[in-house]
Amino acid sequence: MDYQLINKYLLGETSESEVRELFNWIEEAPENRKEFIACKKVWAFTARGNESEDKIWRLLFAPRLKRHKLIRLSFQLAQYAAILFLVFGSGFAFQYFGWGFNKEKLVYQKSTSITVPLGQMTNVELPDGTKVMLNSGSSITYDGSFALGKRQVSLNGEAYFDVAKDREHPFVVQTFLLNFEVLGTSFNIEAYAEDITINTTLIEGSLGVKDKSQNRILLLVPGENAQYDALTSKISVTKVNTEIYTSWKEGLITFRNEKLKDIARKIERWYNVKIIINNQKLGEQAYFGTILKNKPIDQILEVLRLTSSLKYRMITKTDVPTLIYWD
């Protein structure tokens, strides 16, 4: 196996054809799947979110090439061809069907609130021209003074902001733990009230991070990610590949050293399902991989099964969320 391909996959930089090639190799033999999972576990010890590809290649993959011969991959596994085509072949055509994006022209009232149901995403344009994309299970609220220059919104959930420039009126995003202030910039915030962390990634411009007493904690520059832990009240800043944190807008989700129990919560929001993890050790396992968010839940689960030690069962019921058991 060309371990550079595994490296690219874990970094979230593979093309659709490369992902298909990797998955075919994984399914060729049980030994290949074990080898892939072993690579991910070793990679987890070296990856820190800001590593260079050369460093990971040097620490993990290059030595393995001394012990393995490169082989050509077979594409003759017809039993998986349909799944892989459905999962990866459609690219990003999801924006034309399946999700039902709503570009809203809002009637601005004294107080306006936009809530996105589970399993959907919505585009919103605010009175000042700021564009916001809201992720599943997210909401944003602002009052009538927004149109008068007080550019302040409250967010619960995840949103990507492309803020209209206005030097006289800062743009403020309030969350349950932190506030964020800008003049004109692009950034992503993940701040679900039921989670214990807030994750912020700056794409362009500058972003001030403040506590609830309006004291500035730090000032982010483009390419930086800040993660705040509510349990420890500590915030960590790292230099990252920003596409990993914003690719959800196009339906491509890359997980980097995320616990499966945290991924389960995200899947519950995306698909309005209930996931029960029977094996608690499984929930603590770190996962590295890429999936297409817009695909049916059974195909997403199949991708997770192929690229981790996860096994699953689904129980579909009427009028209530589907139950999914992870073993």
Features:
Jelly Rolls, 14-stranded mixed beta sheet, Phage tail protein beta-alpha-beta fold, 9 helices, alpha+beta, three-stranded mixed beta sheet
Number of helices: 9
Mean pLDDT: 78
The rounded Rg comes to 21 Å
Largest sheet: 14 strands, mixed
Whole-number tally of structural domains:
3
SSE arrangement, N to C: HHHHHEEEEEEEEEEEEEEHEHEHEHEE
Terminal Cα span: 29 Å
Total count of strands: 19
Q: Helix proportion of residues, in percent? A: 25-40%
Shape: globular
TL;DR?
The protein is of the alpha+beta class and 327 residues long.
Verbal overview:
With 327 residues, the protein is α+β, with helices and mostly antiparallel strands. It has three domains: 89 residues, no CATH class; 151 residues, Sandwich (Jelly Rolls), CATH 2.60.120; 75 residues, Phage tail protein beta-alpha-beta fold. Helix content is 29%, strand content 31%. The protein contains nine helices and 19 strands. Strands 1, 2, 3, 4, 5, 6, 7, 8, 9, 10, 11, 12, 13 and 14 form a 14-stranded mixed beta sheet that branches. About 18% of the residues have low confidence.
Topology:
Layout: H1 3-10, H2 16-28, H3 30-46, H4 53-65, H5 78-89, E1 103-104, E2 111-115, E3 122-125, E4 131-134, E5 139-143, E6 151-162, E7 171-174, E8 179-182, E9 186-191, E10 197-204, E11 207-210, E12 216-220, E13 224-229, E14 234-239, H6 242-246, E15 252-259, H7 260-271, E16 274-277, H8 280-284, E17 286-292, H9 297-306, E18 312-315, E19 323-326
Parallel strand pairs: 1-3, 6-7, 16-19
Antiparallel strand pairs: 2-5, 3-4, 4-6, 5-6, 6-9, 7-8, 8-11, 9-10, 10-13, 11-12, 13-14, 15-17, 18-19
Helix pairs in contact: 1-4, 2-3, 2-5, 3-4
